[in-house]
From TrEMBL:
Keywords: Hydrolase, Membrane, Protease, Serine protease, Transmembrane, Transmembrane helix. Residues 115-251 form the Peptidase S54 rhomboid domain. Its main location: membrane. This is RHOMBOID-like protein. Serine protease involved in intramembrane proteolysis. One of its GO terms (cellular component) is Golgi apparatus. The chain crosses the membrane at residues 41-60, 124-145, 157-175, 209-228, 234-252, 280-302.
Amino acid sequence: MSNSNRDLELGAEKKRPWKADNHYYAAATTYVEEDGEWTPWLIPMFILASVVLFVAVMYVNDCPEKSLRTYGGCVAKFLGRISFQPLKENPLFGPSSSTLDRMGALDWNKIVHQKQGWRLITCMWLHAGVIHLLANMLCLAFVGICLEQQFGFVRVATIYLLSGFGGSILSSLFIQSRISVGASGALFGLVGAMVSELITNWTIYTNKAAALFMLIIIIALNLGLGVLPHVDNFAHIGGLLTGFLLGFILLVRPQFGWVDRQYLGAEAHAKKSKHKAYQYLLWLLALVLLIIGFIIGLVMLFKGESANDHCSWCHYLSCVPTSKWHCGNR
């Protein structure tokens, strides 16, 4: 089956008019290739950059030379300078907390009092260990490459970076007593964008209820794991909300049939608008909420406020204390 007979959104045959000229088919084919057949390269580059940066962090960490041996010897000593901290200190096979802090981890005190706002961005490229890195990069490959194939690198990069930034802001507002690293907020942003993309383009999909249900289950399970200690669930939530709003803004598709009509003549094209009214409404609402959210979050952060003072129970969203563990000072 040729590309010209495939529908971009449904992946099935289109019911085309019997009397269509060659220009119509060529134009439709071009649209499919440009909007739905992007070759993913940005997400693989993000993955490569994260891996290279992790190796660089381990090189700076230099466990054999700088470790105090308080928790025992270095792990995987055959790696030399890039060997890991003792497992009692870092069970994820990675560097020390002090090294991560020097390399740009999210640190509320340094962001607010030393004006190091760049940490809101750099923290999403750092990982606490090999296990942390592998988990995030596998998720990024699975979700990110699929989105980049459909929507291109510009929109996916925007969602990824802004979602990571949004996750960092929310994390800094609630967790101010320890550092945080990882791409989890950016990853949750991509998943949130998938949900809003499905909602705003609801009329052009089949099996959409089942897809939405599965996405909600995936999000719920991951947020559920986030209530365990040492997991920054606020970064997850901040990234998820940011990506969810960005999906309404950046991932809007033309309604089904509009592409066909724009090549059938002005009269047919005039009968159907490119987007539905609810898509425009969701776009505007999401844009307003996103701008307001970033402004409020940044103002509170650089004023040194703690969001816990405005929400006494919100800390349970990131850690629920039990008889097996405590959540520490948040």
